[in-house]
Amino acid sequence: MIAKTASRKIVVASDRRDLNRTHVHLAIGGLQGADCDVVFLGCAPYPMLNYACRALDIPYALMMTSAEAEEGTIGFRLTIDNTPSASFELKSLFEASRTANFDAISGTGRLAEVDLRHGYLRWLMHGARPSGKPLAVLWNAGNGASTDIVTSLATTLPGRHVVINQGTETPCRPIDDNAIREILTSVQTIALVGASANPHRPSHEVMAFLQDKGYRVIPINPGLAGQILLGETVHASLAEIGTAVDMIDIFRNGNDAGPLVDHAIAIDARVVWMQLGVINTEAAARGEAAGLTVVMDRCQKIEIVRLGLKP
After folding, report:
1. DSSP H or E stretch at residue 176
2. How far apart are CA 34 and CA 4, in angstroms?
3. How do residues 140-164 score in pLDDT, each as one tens digit?
4. Pairing state between β 83-84 and 76-80
5. What is the spatial distance between Cα 189 and Cα 244, in angstroms, rounded to a whole number?
6. DSSP labels for 183-231?
7. Model pTM greater than 0.85?
């Protein structure tokens, strides 16, 4: 149906459930094979999919989320003619995607990856700042689909912010405010892994915020190695820093956190801090066994503001 329309374009996104990561590419390939041009948002919340349809003037969208599916299958949500449908599962299409007939489809559909997070964030922020009143917000990250958006909002808006449903079924171990306060008032030098030169990225915002609060922040990003970012030389890895650091701040996914914790142990860091949505309990246990203090699924900027630290 979509392939026969005049536009022959569709917006596609997925949440962070493990089930989707491999099969989303099957769906994109099938749409291209049906001569559809695919605009892929990557990991995004469902409301952002509808925003993309309006912003890009594309009437069709497909959200892949196993939240609407039976166990062990993929679910879909559709937008047709700019109207979101009720959530439902298209199990038969998913099963068809694994057949030889599906593999035989060939077409000329193109794929474009588009980052609309900043536009979507500005749209969400429009009129969101209360006058003189701090916010108290419980954010639902849609099983990780909107963790980046939520992080940007939570680090920009004043007030207290709590984030849930960040794409992992492993609960974070609690850490009390006194422990957070002790960490943030004792560390001085922080190595930030996953630093970005994009001022709209949460890692860039947090780095600038921490510097403004008096911390020295050493950026780590192999793609930017040798460049100057916010007055500091970017290093390719923790091993190349060449100076003592108190904290390793991780803006990477949970899988990447494992080797980074091992590096933190090797360079005698005191604290490993995993940002919002970054959780690796096995790595945390290794770090704690080696004497490190480990914080998961927290943002220093949020905690500093919430606890009233470092004015």
Report:
1. none
2. 9
3. 666 565 666 676 666 666 666 666 6
4. antiparallel
5. 8
6. HHHH--EEEEET--S-TTSHHHHHHHHHHHTT-EEEEE-GGGTTSEETT
7. no
